Amino acid sequence: MNSAAQLHNMAPGSLLPKGTWALLNAVSAVAQAPLTSIAERLREALLPFAAGSALVIFTEDCTGRPQKKAGEEGIISRVSIAELQGLRASLTDGSPWLGEAGIAAEPRPVLAVRHVASNALLVITDPCLDEDAPATDSALELVQYFWQLAAQRIQEKVKDAPPSYLLESRAASAERIRVTAELVDQHSTTLETLLAALRSSSLDDAAARSSVTALTAKALVGLRTLSDRTADLVEEPVAKAFERLREDLMPLTRFSGISVQFIEPPLSGRALPGEVAHAARAIVRGLLLAMMEQPEVRRVRAQWDCDGENLLINVRDDGLGALSADAPSIGRLDRRVQALSGRMHLDVMAGWGADVSVTLPLDPPAMPAGDVTAWNLAPRELEVLQHLAAGKRNRTIASALGISENTVKFHVRNLFRKLDVGSRTEAIALANSHGLR
């Protein structure tokens, strides 16, 4: 290409080819996106070369918000965790996959990519790929690049999550478990009653009865499985969480030349809330990396235990005792511990190594009641909010306060307006942050 042709393909006032600035700006937007809007930023970045009706991110790093969505409301409001889990299980590696999958309760063309490091999933419904994608990469390669960037951003933001985010995550997790449990009870009763009717001897069409009974039993199993999967997102058995830590660190321990000993927690230990399990793994990884960077370290021991109320972590090395509490890496880990209302203690023994103990509470701390006068709530509205914060539904609140369910709904709408929130989960999180339980 001659120089005149090259200049023709350059953006005005730039030495970069046309379209490159737009691509770089999209990369910057995704790389800096907050967790609350990362789905929207990623969808905007992908639209020029991989448009679709909706974009869904499914990640277990964010225990209270496993789905992040943007696009058509009819899709993003109906997509389920069970659908996303099934699609993710069918993907064997991190390569983009094009095909048909059940999303939002019906078969749809999808583009799906799994992030191998975190097991997060990206789904674009009704994808339309641009054959003339910008730069030299294909549209699928660009999708994979942007998804890797977004998935890493999610991991980074969760690691540095402030206490307010973790509190809201816990509230959202508890709300989801409660709602799912109610749905399980409701539909289980319905299905069990249907099964009893279909098995009745008064029905003489045996073939029809047998067929419908089998279908109904399958639906009942599926409903209970959905409940179990939802619970798995917000609680993790302590032994399983520790095994995941060991698997994550296997490549590091294999090639570092340093012997790492893992002391497993008791199998009977209490299950860990999702955000505690995730944070604990990140803390141990960070401590191991910090210790391995010291000279003369040959062995590191990592141990977990559980006393029923706390996860107890201990990591120690046999180095020269050079680890410093003032090191930036240790400071970042300490802030992570404090975000979960935990404690970290570093004991350095010159010539003998470093010993780090971490205590992470398994339950959110009881917070002192905050000042709620700025919300300007009427006494009855405050009562309703307290019942909401305790996880009660409208019918239960109505019974407790001696008012109608419609009156409760009226008060809830007023609460949303005065608290400037858009959902019960947000209202519960805000109430909890002010000490209402």
Task: Summarize the helices and strands and which ones pair or pack.
Elements: H1 3-8, H2 20-31, H3 38-46, E1 50-51, E2 54-58, E3 67-71, H4 73-76, H5 81-89, E4 97-103, E5 106-115, E6 120-125, E7 128-129, H6 139-159, H7 163-198, H8 206-234, E8 235-236, H9 238-255, E9 259-263, E10 272-273, H10 274-292, E11 299-306, E12 310-317, H11 328-339, E13 343-349, E14 353-361, H12 379-389, H13 394-401, H14 405-419, H15 424-433
Task: Describe what this molecule looks like in 3D.
Helix content is 50%, strand content 18%. With 437 residues, it is an alpha+beta fold. It has 15 helices and 14 strands. The chain has four domains: 3-159, 2-Layer Sandwich (Beta-Lactamase); 164-235; 238-361, 2-Layer Sandwich (Heat Shock Protein 90), CATH 3.30.565.10; 373-433, Arc Repressor Mutant, subunit A, CATH 1.10.10.
- Helical content band: 40-55%
**Number of β-strand runs:** 14
Evaluate the radius of gyration. 26 Å
CATH architecture classification of the largest domain? 2-Layer Sandwich
Q: What's the number of structural domains?
A: 4
Shape estimate = globular
Average pLDDT, all residues: 79
> Which runs of at least 5 residues are low in confidence (pLDDT < 50)?
1-13
Observed structural traits:
single chain, Heat Shock Protein 90, five-stranded mixed β-sheet, 50% helix, 15 helices, disordered N terminus, Beta-Lactamase, 437 residues, alpha+beta
Short account of what is shown:
This protein has 15 helices and 14 strands.
